[in-house]
Amino acid sequence: MRKFFGTSVVAISAAAMLALAGCGSGRDGDSGSGGEAAKGFPANSLIGVALPAKTSENWVLAGDLFTNGLKEAGFQADVQYAGASTTVADQQAQITAMTTKGAKVIVIGATDAAQLSTQVAAAHAAGVKVIAYDRLITNTPDLDYYVAFDNFKVGQLQGQALLDGMKAKKPNGPYNIELFSGSPDDNNAGVFFNGAMSVLKPEIDKGNVVVASKQTDVKQTAIQGWKAEGAQARMDQLLTSTYGNKELDGVLSPNDTLARAILTSVKGAGKPTPVVTGQDSEVESVKSIVAGEQYMTINKDTRNLVKETINMVKALQAGNTPQVNDTKSYNNGSKVVDTYLLPPVAVTKANAAEAYANDPKLAPLTK
Amino acid sequence: MSRLKDLQKNLFGGTTSNARQFGMIFTLVAIVVLFQILTDGLTLRSDNLIALFQQNSYILILAIGMLMVIVAGHIDLSVGSVAAFAGILVAKSMADWSLPWPVAILFGLAIGAIIGAWQGFWVAYIGVPAFIVTLAGMLLFRGGNQYIGNANTIPVPEGFREIGSGFLPEFGPNTGYNNATLLLGLAAAVAVVWREIQARKTRRAMDADPAPMWISILRMAIMVGVIAFAALRFASGRVGTSFPISGIILLVLVIAYSFYTRNTAGGRHIYAVGGNSRAAELSGVKLKRVNFFVMMNMSVLAALAGMIFVARSAASGPQDGNGWELDAIAAVFIGGAAVSGGIGTISGSIVGGLVMAVLNNGLQLMGVGTDRVQIIKGLVLLLAVAIDVYNKSQGRFSIIGSLMRPFRREDSAPPASPPDAEREPAKAAVSG
Question: Which fold would CATH assign to domain A151-300+347-366?
């Protein structure tokens, strides 16, 4: 028995020593701790880009632009999309993996704006700069920058276009409209909706515009996950419940995917096409606008947004402070985030050719 | 007996088993080594190991419950929805009723128990197949989550976040490592050695041949080496990070449930019910009670998993729990459980879950997109089970069969391989 213990002790301590040797020396100490961007970082560093699931063309395009743009600028790009079903968990894991791989900047198009604070904090603690792309990440003091289109303006343009479109079809009201808004977990959805309502509310109060279903609360109008089938189902129900013998004049739709779903539903019910708004300039919707079905969309040229984001990364690389143009409006619940806002453009059949002149994919569609 | 044969027969798990039964562990080690090379050493770096455990603890916790459900011959499709439902209620309870977070955790577990009792009632006492009951539950509680949360994302307070994103505390002298994690590792190493010595004592007391001395020592050395390696890795993360709290919760559950399923009458009843429910009932197993218990237990663990995820995400959101049931079920089957019930182990399921987790993590570190990761994971699941089923049908080595070996009554004579091979197909016939 004594021999047993003797040999055990020797063997076990040998194993432990081996493990210790394999581990190298202790912890890396207080690494980075999110210090200043004082000196920048090497020009060939890894830049992580975490985007939501590929539910709209926009994200696929953004991913391609990031991959190519970052490579052209000399960086290593790691562009990842969340999976279709387990979006939030995927994105959390991806951001963590990027931090582990030593990314210097992580650009995040959040799938759920409020569920990333732990990962953003870990990235920040490791000295990574975090840029929120298109969607503001909320409840974290560790977010560095936000790049987006002016989303309140987007909503205003949609609201105004809806009114203009209906007036062009039928000079006098009252007009019957229905309201749709985006996914409630997307911070932007509310901003679009509020922007649109800032234009529509005065008309509704005057009685000039009527929401016939009376569903005006953002919770009633929201479409979970920006899913087309959700919008189509809701429109089907609205047509059955409210528009048996009424005319539907217009629908406020927050984006193109939902707009087309709404139009599909209206067509299926055999009703005349209402004025439907959109956003994102998706190919199918531009075709639809040119064909006179969908009334308008918003051109938020993803190229410009990605370009602006890459400019920020370049500035950080050189050790400079990136350019921002709004340091007051975007409070994420923990801090006011330095923001660069790009202006959106409303596009209808009338100005489509002009608006997409520089877009290789969309320009041919408008001819 | 030659030394090599000794080694093969005795290295892991006492004298009645051999190294082959750890096929899954070797697969796991192979995958870890593969990714360690492919990712230039990122896989085993301390921050990645810590992240790996934090990211997957909730799925592994689900896998524990799912194993017991599947062994009993059922399935639970509702775990993701139950987790989301419990998560949103707990988040709401803290935000709206300002429950202190420890109370909120108890509240969440109670919700899990109530949901579990509901589902267990339909399965055990009415006899509705668990597939249907939990399919209904999946819709019911997903809807409940959206109804209560209005599909909003609700943040949770700092204290609560600890169970998902917290670490063992820093204390004591500056050793260059996290002292708490080192102590945990030391405790685990002592436990391993103590268990080995106890096992040898027991065998000697029972006049059975203990494994040769040098094998015991080698086995301990390997285990202690692994523990020391893991402890040092976890202890050497960035200051403020160490072994995650969610990992501790997982460890405690794994140990407790392994003991329960392996060494208690209640646990063995689950296997009996899954193997042949009629025979089990005739031998006096309270069928309804067992079925009720496994379904209820699953929902309690689902609620716990939901809370851990919410804590890690710092908020409860409408997408929580989507697809979790599939991850948990995949882990259990990769870990060697039989679709027909009656076969499977907790440790196998944990290893199965870790195989998926390491695969996921490694592919992500290599920058492979989620689309391809899903394809690869799907193929791995299919292959892992297919190889096992094929081997079993050929009467050859089967992970499923061999994982069951520790549960067979030990023969007094040292077992040779031929009877083993003969008994395998017979076993399959019973459980199939």
Answer: Rossmann fold (3.40.50)
pLDDT digits (tens, 9 = 90+) for B156-215: 888 898 898 888 888 878 888 888 888 999 999 999 889 888 888 888 888 887 777 788
Interface-testing mutation among B53, B153, B371, with chain A (most A C-beta atoms within 10 A): B153
Superfamily of the domain at A46-143+302-342: Response regulator (3.40.50.2300)
Per-residue burial over B58-80, b if 16 or more Cβ lie within 10 Å, else e, is: bbbbbbbbbbbbbbbbbbbbbbb
Q: Which amino acid is at B421?
A: A
Say how far apart CA A197 and CA A159 lie, in whole Å. 7
Mean pLDDT of chain B: 83
CB nearest to B165's CB, from A23, A93, A118? A118
Question: CB-based contact (8 Å) between A86 and chain B?
Answer: yes
* B412-418: long-range contacts, CB 8 A cutoff, minimum separation 24: B412/B208, B414/B15, B414/B209, B415/B16
Average pLDDT over residues A255-264: 92
Q: What is the mean pLDDT of residues B373-397?
A: 79
The chain A residue lying nearest B226, using CA atoms, is: A19
Spatial contact of B42 and B332, defined as CB atoms under 8 Å apart: no
Q: What pLDDT sits at residue A28?
A: 54
Residue numbers of A between 95 and 154 with CB closer than 8 Å to B: 96-97, 99-101, 111-118, 122, 125-126, 139
Are B130 and B69 a contacting pair, CB within 8 Å?
yes
Confidence of residue B14 (pLDDT cuts 50, 70, 90): very low
Question: pLDDT, tens digit, for every residue of B69-124?
Answer: 999 999 999 999 999 999 999 999 998 998 999 999 999 999 999 999 999 999 99
**Apex A63 CA angle, A62 and A69, nearest 5:** 85
Contact A145, A131 (CB under 8 A): yes
Residues of chain A with CATH 3.40.50.2300: 46-143+302-342, 151-300+347-366
* Residue ranges per structural domain of chain B: 3-166+264-431, 172-243
**Cβ <8 Å between B217 and A4:** yes
Contact flag B151-A219 (C-beta cutoff 8 Å): yes
Longest CA–CA span in chain B (Å) reads 69
Taking the CA of residue B153 and the nearest CA in chain A, the distance in Å comes to: 6
Q: B357 and B330 in contact (C-beta within 8 Å)?
A: no
DSSP character string of A299-335: E--HHHHHHHHHHHHHHHHTTPPPP-SBSSS-B-SSS
